[in-house]
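REQUEST FORM: STRUCTURE PREDICTION
Request ID: SP-0412
Submitted by: Lab K.M.
Chain count: 1
Length (residues): 272
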Amino acid sequence: PPVRSSSSASLPFFLARSLLYFAAFSGLAFALSALSQRQDETGDPALFRRMQRISGPGIVFFCLAITLASTDWLMSLDAKWFSSLYGLYFLVCQGLSALAFITLVAVWLSRRAPMDRLLEPRYFHDYGKLLLAFVMIWAYFGFSQFLIIWSGNMPEEAEFYHRRLHGGWQALSLAVVLLHFVLPFALLLSRDLKRSARLLGGIAILVLAARWLDLYWQVGPSLYPQGATLHWLDLAATLAVGGIWCGLFFHELGKRTLIPVQDPFLLEAIEL
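STATUS: Completed
RESULT:
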């Protein structure tokens, strides 16, 4: 298990690591965004290869960094509990959240020119299939982690689930299973639903809401062992951070070309 300390001496190192994570993630995002913008402006084919050379190692680095970050930010809340699946579980959660957000943005853009002529039902069908796949992967890793800990029945491991299945947290645990897997899985099996932008947007909102519940389920029992408690700061922090991020995202989106006319694979993507 990873060695973790709650002493005040570890706080500067914890903050330094967190700063390093954000700097690395932001650096990758800004580098790829800047190259993409230059490609839209110049059409230089060398820029596409440069983005590939950054993205390949960047994905590997991101997987390693997010594993360490999830250990620092979430798993460290319980100094005795550990799981070798947790980093990969958190990575899948991020992918699911990103895909649900992208789906919502696509639904919003599909009602406005010029994307209303390009975003056809077949594209939303693909978004829906990807959402279904990530919902199933989330359930697979979540259940795998539970099954391994349940079969091992080690006190330092089982305590994580014991807290969440007792002491007033049972209802939230059931809600996470139903809203994060059962309901989206059942709905996304429908081909007609996946091809409807309006209905798929509703599923994306459900998935994002379930993601918030899952994060609260991960954190809450360590902070409120006496039972499920919702503090106003839990919602305020979500709205503040989410609002700032969305504001910056749509600000940047408004300055960019929505159709990448200089992308070498644009015609191939449209004609598929």
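NOTES: The mean pLDDT is 90.
Reviewed by: T.R.
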